[in-house]
């Protein structure tokens, strides 16, 4: 997906799937700063299926808003599959939404390490009827490119998972 119009088109397709199943979606975003929620709410009528979005940029907000245990952050780092899983599970528990996604990563230009270079991102999805699923990505480019790729991957993954539920 190359531009915002393509993201919005995919968001509309996701909305149709969610609405057709009577599901509501919650998002929890760190490195994307609400870009996924912006893409979803660009769709007219999204209030029928989009519950809310959390922007948990700091470690404190991950703990306070969606209940990520401090021990997970200390053990695995804020940019980890384990923390992304806790982010989505906490958001689902707090909102009652049926579907969710969480993103945590390093968009750059600073903040990377040898183990987790700039462009390292973890995305986790949860939809009814499917196991919690997550993936590590290694995106290339500047901050804007990494963030855009995060949103595109998050929407694609959500669409795949929602469409696969009978």
What do these coordinates show?
With 166 residues, this protein is α/β, with parallel strands linked by helices. The protein has one domain (4-164): CinA-like (Maf protein). The chain contains 6 helices and 5 strands; from the N terminus they run H-E-H-E-H-H-H-E-E-E-H. It has helices spanning 4-21, 35-41, 59-66, 70-76, 81-95, 143-164; strands at residues 25-29, 50-55, 99-105, 120-126, 133-138. It starts with a helix and ends with a helix. The mean pLDDT is 96.
Summarize the structure.
The protein has 166 residues and is an alpha/beta fold. The chain has helices at residues 4-21, 35-41, 59-66, 70-76, 81-95, 143-164, and strands spanning 25-29, 50-55, 99-105, 120-126, 133-138.
Shape: globular
How widely separated are the two ends? 26 Å
What is the tally of beta strands?
A: 5
Provide the CATH superfamily.
Answer: CinA-like
Number of helices: 6
Radius of gyration: 15 Å
Structural class: alpha/beta
Domain unit count: 1
Biggest β-sheet strands, sense, barrel: 5 strands, mixed
Write the layout of secondary structure elements.
Layout: H1 4-21, E1 25-29, H2 35-41, E2 50-55, H3 59-66, H4 70-76, H5 81-95, E3 99-105, E4 120-126, E5 133-138, H6 143-164
Parallel strand pairs: 1-2, 1-3
Antiparallel strand pairs: 3-4, 4-5
Helix pairs in contact: 1-6
């Amino acid at each position: 997906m190359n531009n915002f119009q393509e993201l919005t088109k995919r968001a509309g397709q996701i909305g149709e799937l969610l609405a057709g199943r009577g599901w509501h979606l919650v998002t929890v975003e760190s490195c994307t700063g609400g870009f996924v929620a912006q893409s979803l709410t660009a769709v007219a009528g999204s209030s029928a299926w989009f519950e809310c979005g959390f922007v948990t940029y700091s470690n404190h907000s991950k703990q306070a808003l969606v209940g990520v245990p401090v021990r997970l952050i200390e053990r695995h780092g804020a940019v980890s599959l384990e923390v992304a899983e806790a982010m989505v599970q906490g958001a689902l528990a707090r909102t009652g939404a049926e579907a969710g996604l969480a993103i945590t990563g390093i968009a750059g230009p600073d903040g990377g390490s040898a183990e987790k270079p700039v462009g390292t991102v973890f995305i986790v999805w949860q939809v009814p009827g499917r196991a919690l699923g997550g993936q590590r990505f290694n995106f290339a480019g500047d901050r804007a490119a990494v963030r855009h790729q995060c949103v595109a991957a998050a929407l694609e993954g959500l669409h795949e998972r929602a469409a696969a539920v009978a």
